[in-house]
């Protein structure tokens, strides 16, 4: 029984020394001197703020993309023991001792280092020679812009890593499926493709371009399988379901999981949650939740409420009134009703309180039991402090003459009767009998007499003049058949009114509510709202000193200064050397006719290389011509990576097919070695501005300015 012990247990393993050497060199190039400079470098000032918020569990919204990349950066801070206490207020600020600089920069550096062996393996899986694969890896290794971008707390190197991992995983899966359907390794690489694609999209939405490219490639490969007579219909269905699971369902599930973790971690209220709905804010610890905890859920006749406009742009604001009236005549000569002003006020104030009144009754308190207000009910809104009724009439609004003025009615005993009846329409109702709910219900108020809708002015952000205290204009919008968030309001603060006397009611309006009620949103509701905010929230794009156009990237007409030494030198990042990527793409297209006449295997090889390398470059570059946003050189790095992969492909073709004699092959090899030597020389030349040291003299810095358009900062002595 124990006879197997007579012989030793032997384990054999194949080790690719090329791959190991490239990995080690990649780690050295990206990790060496990682904590230098010990100061905030370029967009670290931006991402560092989010890392600090993660450490403190404070909610934030970043309109640049999903949260997965931010969480990875925060993971580095967590592993380094960062407490989040640092003021990220300017580039060049010295890090305090509590900031683990190396730990914060470690994950981007590791991702950048691993891109080197990934490039090697991609070309091997594309069936090109190990020499070509080694060339691609060396070009990635020595590309100064990729080195610099991966050595700081930035996201591009992480994005490129997941993009290359997705491409490699799919190529390995595709090569395996020819002889081992549904094997363990087949499933592993297929599933890893979907996981890597999801991670790429989760880091930045730019990853979506490569994900779509791989979906198209996978679709074309499956289309070819349909014509395979050796595959049964059942087998085809299984292949289709496997790809759907791995490439669609799992990436979607993972994408949702990124937001789930993000929202689980960030449970505290902060400055960014003000752009979210009241329901979202109330789900966070502190802030609005502290105010709204315990409020009654159902709005009833007699309820005291504050009404927040759902739009939240250019700032959150609440329906408001005060004792001041509209001027008899405006500056342009138009007349007003001289009624009490109604505005949208961006701060919490006692004058934001309104009482929901039943038009058929005089009482301003909630009955016992309460009578809830439902969709379609007619109400009057009474201003809590002044007891005047919300009103609109056929008088032009002050800033929006095509809309109706909204006021609180004052009886001047003239021929202008009150028109203060409003129909409550619950926009997000499930049925026509829905009850108006605190925070959860989004409602429109439709004026009964004129059918105008209560809304914040269509001139979003329009502030009234000094007589209106620069508050936002509120109007009655006529003929409002469409839907816009400026027309929608939700009850944020709510209490059941108990005091019929005005003086007692004023005291009541100043006091907080104390009733118990939980209004937690579901994850999907929070995800949907946050995702919509990320996609639609736009910061004002301002011209930046180092912004550039997509065309500037391929002509090398731009650079970026990331950090300036406080006393002597400069650290800049640009495309430090001219990669003949454009020539490679032209060469690729010119050689297609030749491959059309070649054997099928050669044609398939060329199509695969083109689909991955040229396709990867195109989908990561061309969309920027359609984007209306401030662009920087680093946006080109994913496309540049695919461009670099294409160079050895073209070089191998030239050596194999255009160099027929031994002499020509020798000459071509010598030229290739000379060209790679020039790449290494360029890497060495620009190393001081890649790594930020050693310091260079003014003359040495000026010598690095290969093009007049490059802006290299030089500190004046």
From TrEMBL:
Pathway assigned in UniProt: Protein modification; protein glycosylation
InterPro entries assigned to the protein according to its UniProt record, in alphabetical order: ArnT-like_N, MIR_dom_sf, MIR_motif, PMT-like, PMT_4TMC
Recorded catalytic activity of this chain's protein: a di-trans,poly-cis-dolichyl beta-D-mannosyl phosphate + L-seryl-[protein] = 3-O-(alpha-D-mannosyl)-L-seryl-[protein] + a di-trans,poly-cis-dolichyl phosphate + H(+); a di-trans,poly-cis-dolichyl beta-D-mannosyl phosphate + L-threonyl-[protein] = 3-O-(alpha-D-mannosyl)-L-threonyl-[protein] + a di-trans,poly-cis-dolichyl phosphate + H(+)
SMART domains to which the protein is assigned, alphabetical: MIR
Top-level taxonomic group: Eukaryota
EC number: 2.4.1.109
Membrane topology: Multi-pass membrane protein
Keyword tags: Endoplasmic reticulum, Glycosyltransferase, Membrane, Repeat, Transferase, Transmembrane, Transmembrane helix
Pfam families hit by this protein: MIR, PMT, PMT_4TMC
TM segment ranges: 15-33, 104-120, 126-142, 154-174, 186-203, 208-226, 246-267, 605-626, 632-651, 663-683
Domain MIR: 296-359, 370-427
Localisation per UniProt entry: Endoplasmic reticulum membrane
Single GO molecular function: dolichyl-phosphate-mannose-protein mannosyltransferase activity
A GO cellular component entry from the record: endoplasmic reticulum membrane
Similarity remark: Belongs to the glycosyltransferase 39 family.
Protein name: Protein O-mannosyl-transferase 1
Organism: Anhinga rufa
């Amino acid at each position: 029984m124990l006879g197997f012990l007579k012989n030793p247990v032997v384990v054999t393993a194949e080790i690719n020394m090329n791959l190991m050497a490239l990995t080690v060199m990649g780690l050295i190039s990206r990790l060496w001197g990682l904590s230098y400079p010990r100061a905030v470098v370029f967009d670290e000032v931006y991402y560092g703020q989010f890392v600090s918020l993660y450490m403190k569990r404070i909610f934030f919204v970043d309109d640049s993309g999903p949260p997965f990349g931010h969480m990875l950066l925060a993971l580095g801070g967590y592993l380094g023991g960062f407490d989040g206490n640092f003021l990220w207020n300017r580039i060049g600020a010295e890090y305090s001792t509590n900031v683990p600089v190396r730990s914060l920069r470690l994950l981007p550096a590791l991702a950048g280092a691993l891109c080197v062996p990934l490039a090697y393996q991609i070309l091997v899986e594309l069936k090109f020679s190990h020499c070509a694969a080694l060339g691609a890896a060396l070009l990635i290794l020595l590309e100064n812009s990729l080195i610099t971008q991966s050595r700081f707390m930035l996201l591009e190197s992480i994005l490129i890593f997941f993009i290359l991992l997705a491409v490699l995983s799919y190529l390995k899966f595709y090569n395996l499926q020819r002889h081992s359907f549904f094997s363990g390794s087949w499933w592993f690489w297929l599933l890893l493709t979907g996981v890597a694609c999801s991670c790429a999209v989760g880091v930045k939405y730019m990853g979506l371009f490569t994900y779509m490219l791989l979906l198209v490639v996978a679709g074309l490969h499956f289309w070819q399988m349909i014509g395979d007579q050796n595959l049964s219909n059942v087998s085809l269905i299984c292949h289709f379901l496997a790809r759907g699971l791995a490439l669609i369902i799992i990436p979607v599930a993972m994408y949702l999981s990124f937001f789930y973790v993000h929202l689980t971690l960030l449970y505290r209220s902060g400055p960014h949650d003000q752009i979210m709905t009241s329901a979202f804010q109330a789900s966070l610890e502190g802030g609005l939740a502290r105010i709204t905890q315990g409020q009654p859920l159902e709005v009833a006749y007699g309820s005291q409420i504050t009404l927040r406009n759902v739009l939240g742009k250019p700032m959150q604001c609440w329906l408001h009134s005060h004792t001041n009236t509209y001027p008899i005549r405006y500056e342009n000569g138009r007349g007003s009703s001289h009624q009490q002003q109604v505005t949208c006020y961006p701060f919490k104030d006692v004058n934001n309180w309104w009482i929901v009144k039943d038009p058929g009754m005089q009482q301003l308190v909630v009955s016992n039991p309460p009578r809830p207000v439902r969709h379609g009910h007619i109400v009057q809104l009474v201003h809590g402090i002044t007891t005047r009724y919300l009103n609109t009439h056929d008088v032009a609004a002050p800033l929006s003459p095509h809309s109706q003025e909204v006021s609180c009615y004052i009886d001047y005993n003239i021929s202008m009767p009150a028109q203060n009846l409003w129909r409550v329409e619950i926009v997000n109702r499930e049925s026509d009998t829905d009850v108006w709910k605190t925070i959860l219900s989004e409602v429109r108020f439709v004026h009964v007499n004129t059918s105008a809708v209560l809304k914040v002015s269509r001139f979003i952000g329009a502030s009234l003049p000094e007589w209106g205290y620069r508050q936002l204009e509120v109007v009655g919008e006529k003929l409002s058949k469409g839907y816009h968030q400026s027309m929608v309001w939700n009850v944020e603060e709510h209490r059941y009114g108990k005091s019929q006397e005005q003086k007692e009611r004023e005291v009541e309006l100043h006091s907080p509510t104390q009733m118990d009620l939980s209004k937690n949103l579901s994850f999907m509701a929070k995800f949907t709202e946050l995702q919509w905010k990320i996609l639609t929230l736009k910061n004002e794009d301002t011209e930046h000193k180092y912004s550039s156009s997509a065309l500037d990237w391929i002509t090398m007409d731009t650079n970026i200064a990331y950090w300036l030494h406080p006393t002597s030198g400069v650290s800049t990042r640009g495309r430090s050397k001219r990669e003949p990527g454009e020539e490679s793409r032209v060469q690729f297209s010119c050689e297609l006719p030749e491959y059309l006449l070649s054997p099928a295997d050669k044609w398939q090889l060329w199509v695969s290389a083109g689909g991955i390398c040229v396709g990867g470059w195109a989908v990561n570059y061309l969309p920027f011509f359609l984007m209306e946003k401030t662009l920087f050189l680093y946006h080109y790095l994913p496309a540049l990576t695919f461009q670099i992969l294409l160079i050895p492909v073209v070089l191998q073709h030239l050596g194999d097919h255009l160099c027929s004699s031994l002499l020509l092959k020798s000459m071509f090899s010598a030229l290739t070695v000379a060209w790679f030597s020039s790449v290494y020389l360029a890497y060495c030349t620009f190393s001081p501005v890649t790594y930020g040291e050693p310091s260079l003299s003014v003359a040495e810095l000026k010598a690095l300015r290969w093009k007049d358009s490059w802006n290299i900062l030089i500190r004046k002595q």
